[in-house]
Amino acid sequence: MSDTTSSTTLLFQAPPSAPFSGTDGDPAPPASEHRSAASPRGRGDDPSSPQLRMLKGARQAAAGMNISDAAIREVLEDPQDVQPDADRPERTRLRRGNLLVTTGQDGTILRVARQR
Fold first, then answer.
1. Nearest to 48 by CA among 69, 67, 74, 77
2. By CB count within 10 A, which of 45, 84, 94, 108 is most buried?
3. Contact 79, 73 (CB under 8 A)
4. Which residues of 20-48 are buried (b: 16+ CB within 10 A; e: fewer)?
5. CB-side exposure of 76: number of CA atoms within 13 Å?
6. How many other CB atoms sit within 10 Å of the CB of residue 102?
7. In the chain, which ranges are continuous DSSP H helix?
8. What angle do CA 101, 106, 110 make, to 5 degrees?
9. pTM as predicted
């Protein structure tokens, strides 16, 4: 047996620096320019703040209980209590006052409720 060592060299190529929109070589506009002026925002919230990522059911529940996106943001930014969900520990429950927000691992709002 000979004591030869072989090595494998991997070469990764970087993607192009800017995507091109056509044959004229102009770069595509940034994604923020693709939004229409009538994009949905939270009810009565600051238009410069991004829309919360919520499941459809959570959005409907918040609307049905007249909970604004601003109130939900307050819970997310400064909760009084944070704990894992009792049934699903991968979810987080945040509470501020009587408002309870359950989020997933990626930060998506899964549930919005009022505590009694």
1. 69
2. 94
3. no
4. eeeeeeeeeeeeeeeeeeeeeebeebeee
5. 18
6. 19
7. 56-64, 69-77
8. 35
9. 0.57
- Which residue in 35, 67, 39 sits closest to 109, CA to CA? 67
Strand order in the sheet with 99-103: 81-84, 92-96, 99-103, 109-114
| Tens digits of pLDDT across the chain (116 residues) | 555 667 777 666 666 555 554 545 555 445 444 333 333 444 444 555 678 899 999 999 999 999 999 999 999 999 999 999 889 999 999 999 999 999 999 989 999 999 87
Can you tell me the distance from the alpha carbon of 20 to that of 70, in angstroms, rounded to the nearest whole number? 38
What six digits make up the tokens of 24?
A: 């004229």
